[in-house]
Design goal:
Length: 233
Amino acid sequence: MTDDLAELKRFVRGECDPVHLSHREHVRIAFEMLRRHSFLEAVLHYSRALRAEAGRVGKSQAYHETVTIAFLSLISERLFSGDYPDFDHFERINPDLFNKGVLRNWYHPDRLATELARRTFVLPEPRQCPATLLRIYRLVFAVLTIVASLQALLTQSHHAVLVAPLEICGAFLFLWRRTQIAGAGLLLLVFALAGMIETIHGELPAHLLQYGASTVFILLLGRREANRIKGAQ
């Protein structure tokens, strides 16, 4: 216990060698500090020491305010939610804290990569689940479109041979962010052509209108998300 306290004092004074301070050691120091100080006091001492540590090795830009405070918050929550006689016990019960990527459970990497998140603490946004669902929806939509096109080709109908290859190409382009707009444009063109063909044959292309609406809906949500991330940066 005396050694832990002495090490904390050396850390706060900037006397610890940054080369030997691994992520595990940073978690251990945070654990010991939070046992002795309130959360706000720990944030003050710990963040100040980390910032100074980064400056000593010539990497001041490496200090990340959001990551630092978020990790302290997570360690504090775990610490006061259980009964831990020492750090070894804490480490055994909470192995996820020793993975630097654990914050992805709350933060999207794009949000942590912003200069704003580096300079000051930012809250996680409740958007990861909707963003993930949008990606899944886009994938399912593209796959089903490709499957439907292949089935149409198997019928060997004249209009299917004309538009199905374009539809498959558009669906593949629609999957990737950089080519999403081109893919959407190609898909909408195909749906319009197929709709005209079906209308000429006396059919009501309601399903094609639905496909077109889904394409536009996915595209607009994706662009809105991209613009929001760009604006945050």
